[in-house]
Write a structure and sequence with these properties.
Layout: H1 26-39, H2 47-57, H3 63-76, H4 81-93, H5 102-107, H6 112-126, H7 140-150, H8 155-167, H9 169-181, H10 187-195, H11 202-214, H12 247-251
Length: about 250
């Protein structure tokens, strides 16, 4: 079956220059990834509580990272929770280049998607973690949560989490570009993550350019159960809190 692609980019789908990473300690990187994991999750009535926790936690982060989180927190405080939820759905659930599922950028709705997801599951198991049954393992907030939590006790698990983000870095960059083209408030949250990741190598940057140009493949092979689906509240991993709230409270 022939694979088809999205049209060529327009002014609405620009290619952004990569961000230069900022110096950050391992602890600062973990805090950044946990804060981003929470803020990129599906909005709910608990969002104000999450935002308050994040606002306190990011005070000690590098200024460019903290500023982006603070700007997003300021934005959420001006929005009704129901309006924020509707904006989230319009952004992440209805636009292919804003997918929260990392394997989707490289494999789209093709046969390769299933294999890519299996590899994610195996990586989680190797790190000593399990993903919830109602969530896909390549969901960006879940991967960021793994990155935040795995590094606390296990250098090997931290390397696995870094490998998952690094091997799908071009997807993160496409997401950043797509959000920026929409002037989405979530742009800064993804930028904060990118600022704590290694600089893009030439091969990854090339793949990023190709994906911005063409978009994810769209060969349909009956993988609807593995494609982007309705996001929703879920406790993805073991309990965790930025500053006191339980994971169940924060991610619900």
């Amino acid at each position: 079956m022939k694979t088809t692609f999205l049209p060529k980019p327009t002014r609405r789908t620009p290619q952004l220059a990569p961000l230069s990473p900022v110096p950050a300690s391992a602890s600062q990187r973990r805090t950044t990834h946990m804060a981003a994991s929470l803020l990129l999750g599906y909005p709910s009535l608990r969002t104000p509580q999450i935002v308050a926790e994040v606002r306190r936690a990011v005070v000690g982060l590098p200024d460019p990272v903290a500023a982006r989180f603070t700007a997003f927190c300021d934005y959420t405080e001006t929005r009704d929770p129901a309006d924020l939820e509707a904006e989230y759905v319009r952004t992440f659930d209805l636009k292919r280049k804003c997918s929260m599922y990392l394997t989707y950028f490289a494999t789209g709705d093709t046969r390769k998607r299933g294999t890519a997801l299996v590899r994610f599951v195996e990586a989680y198991k190797a790190a000593g973690w399990e993903i919830a049954d109602d969530e896909l393992p390549d969901y960006l907030p879940a991967v960021l949560e793994l990155s935040a939590k795995a590094g606390e006790d296990s250098p090997e698990a931290a390397q696995i989490a870094a490998g998952l983000l690094g091997s799908h870095r071009e997807g993160v960059e496409v997401l950043r570009s797509a959000l920026a083209s929409m002037t989405s408030p979530w742009t800064g949250v993804v930028e904060a993550v990118c600022l704590t990741l290694p600089a893009l190598d030439r091969a990854t940057e090339k793949r990023f350019v190709e994906l911005v140009t063409s978009g994810p493949p769209t060969e349909m092979v009956g993988l609807s159960a593995m494609g982007p689906h309705e996001s929703g509240p879920s406790g993805t991993l073991a309990p965790f809190a930025l500053g006191g709230a339980s994971a169940e409270e924060a991610r619900r």
